[in-house]
Design a protein that fits this description.
CATH class of the largest domain: Alpha Beta
Distance between the termini: 47 Å
Strand order of the largest sheet: 3-4-5-6-7-8-9
CATH topology of the largest domain: Fructose-1,6-Bisphosphatase, Chain A, domain 1
CATH superfamily of the largest domain: Fructose-1,6-Bisphosphatase, subunit A, domain 1
Largest sheet: 7 strands, mixed
Shape: globular
Number of helices: 7
Number of domains: 2
Length: 268
């Protein structure tokens, strides 16, 4: 993107986050009705309302769209520029009144997340950035952790995965495991250096991670799949087996750790 276009995109993201958080404020966390979609994921009127606001604020002619609540229009596959959004990532936390949910936005160009924004209205946190400009956290320039070892690092883990026991094999590893809802929010915290890394061994979708991925990449961190491949978005099947993200100097140690774990799991 050119500097002028980059500025216009970031302003569009900023405006969309503000509009989405305004729409979300009409609903009360911890006191909202919900139902379940196929796959047992909860959904609320807040999810749908914010999704509609994002679409009306972000989308322009010639651009594609992929969101959790919208119908997947496959014409996006022929677009070079696609918005990948989740109006409410962390719906379970929102329903429970836990302040670990967010609005997540990513602009994907030719399969790569190039700009993104994440806002947690419960904590008044806003993360915005692009590959060209870097990342700001509540208006202040930030970057990923520069830690060079996992010893003493803070690694964010899914509450659901912790409850299932998925992280038990990592209890003896010398990093601090911190429970946190919303994978998008976890990635945003990593992008701002407020945590050193995060990973998930559970299936995700592009709308869960694209906004956070754009921020991590924009703050010079790394993010990749469990298969040790580059993250690509706007694929025909938006599902992912899991992901790993963190500060740039932790990539090797994290990949070695997870590769050993995955090989052991396959042998069992």
């Amino acid at each position: 993107m050119t500097s002028q276009l980059d500025g216009e995109i970031l302003e569009r993201i900023r405006a969309a986050l503000d509009a989405a958080c305004d729409a979300l404020s009409r609903f009360t966390p911890g006191a909202i009705a919900h139902e379940y979609k196929i796959g047992h994921d909860p959904v609320t009127e807040a999810d749908r309302a914010v999704d509609a606001v994002l679409r009306s604020t972000l989308l322009r002619e010639g651009e594609g769209w992929l969101s959790e609540e919208g119908v997947d229009d496959k014409t996006r596959l022929g677009k070079s520029r696609v918005w990948v959004v989740d109006g409410l990532d962390g719906t379970r936390e929102f329903i429970a009144g836990v302040p670990e949910f967010c609005v997540s936005i990513a602009l994907v160009e030719d399969g790569r997340p190039v700009a993104g924004g994440i806002s947690n209205p419960a904590t008044n946190e806003k993360f915005i950035g692009s590959l060209e400009t870097g990342v700001t956290y509540n208006g202040k320039r930030v970057r990923c952790s520069q830690r060079t070892s996992l010893g003493g690092a803070v690694v964010l883990a899914s509450r659901s995965e912790l409850k299932r026991g998925d992280w038990e094999p990592f209890r003896s590893v010398p990093f601090k495991i911190r429970a946190m809802g919303s994978v998008a929010y976890k990635l945003a915290l990593v992008s701002a250096g407020l945590a050193d890394a995060t990973f998930t061994l559970s299936p995700k979708h592009e709308w869960d991670i694209a906004g956070g991925a754009a921020l991590v990449l924009s703050s010079l961190g790394f993010i990749q799949t469990l298969e040790n491949t580059e993250l690509r978005c706007n694929r025909e099947n938006p599902g992912l087996s899991g992901l790993i993200a963190g500060g740039p100097f932790l990539r090797g140690e994290l990949m070695t750790l997870l590769d050993h774990h995955l090989k052991s799991a396959h042998r069992c």
